[in-house]
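User: I'm writing a tutorial on reading structure tokens. Could you give me a worked example: one chain, its sequence, then its tokens, then a sentence or two explaining what the tokens reveal?
Assistant: Sure. Here is the example chain.
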Amino acid sequence: MPALKSLHLFGVNFRTAPVAVRESLTVNRRESAKLLRSVATSDPGLEAVVLSTCNRTELYVAVDAAAQPIENRLTGALRRRVAELVATDAAYHRRGQLAVRHLCRVACGLDSAVLGDAQILGQVKAALSDAGCAGSLGNIMHHAFRCAVSAGRQARNNTGISTGTASVGAALADLIAHRRPNGLVGGRAVVVLGAGKVAAQVSRQLAKRGLRPLTIINRTPANAAKIAAECGGRTAPWYDRESRMREADVIVAACGSAKPVVSRDMLARVARARKDLLVVDAGLPRNVEVVPDVEIMNVDAICERQEAGLLERRAAVPAVERLIDEAVGAWVAWCDAQPLESAIKDLFAEVRRVSERHANSLARLRGLSAGEAETELVKEFKRHLHPFVRELRAHWTVSGRGGTPAVS
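And here are its predicted structure tokens:
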């Protein structure tokens, strides 16, 4: 009977590491896919999932439950990535059901900069899908993530954790509105750099709050035009972004770029033309290079914003925690049952082997083909065995038997 693997989590998040550290450890989807494919190729027995967002970089791995240190059981690029995380003072390492509990808290929005963040459940689902496509998703990891996704879905559907402003984009719009309570200075524009999810959310929320006109600028004009049409805004060419920023009261940079899209020199020139400029950097890696005496609000500023809508979401936390307890309990029960399920699987495999050996004899007696006879034998064996299998499962559950190496 194969031993159940042990589940491990290595990571940093906004609670443990400042934006500069998280930025250095972030893994984009292309890098993630490459890493996971290398895991699937070099070590098929190892399972891995990468969850990397603006608030966290986390590596989930499932390996054989040997006594040697976990780092010695990793290979290649994954071992290097884990080493990078472990070398950071801000890193955490959680095992078994503690790792699953953490993942459930993430999926439910309890471990987000904005309590109940609407985006994180989709990001957890995407991480699961990416690992499946790369071939690094095994039984242990798949079940852990499915438990977390189920808990996250129930939390959003059955509690108030999603009430009010729950997305990063909406929270940033609230921050901007708080800093510009009387609207834009002199009717100047808000310039939004980017056309991804956060840029679209910020633009929609700013439009709702009457912070217009909006100018959307993106390298792909069609994407900018789509957001501008939704928000009643306008577009401008990417090459003209500096001149448009000089005319702005607020600049929001929300690009999925590996390098800054607003350089230090560019921002210095813009700031000279606009002394009370408000700059919001919603990217990670950061989109805007730092300039002395220019205030740049980044994703960490979300944590400092106290929203009225948080009160109702905070009130929902105990109910969400109960859902998480149930999800972790289901995970523990599933792990406990794996030795029994493995034995049952072996039993039915033996049923098929016995049926194959005796199929020809039954075929001659009943005038059937060998395939028909084998099907009849398997069906008959299962009919007799299923009551005993059900009793075994019920007894196993009631008695709480079974080892739990994956949840220790």
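What the tokens reveal: The beta strands are 6-13, 47-53, 56-63, 92-95, 189-193, 214-217, 234-236, 248-253, 278-281, 296-297. Residues 144 and 190 are 43 Å apart (CA to CA).
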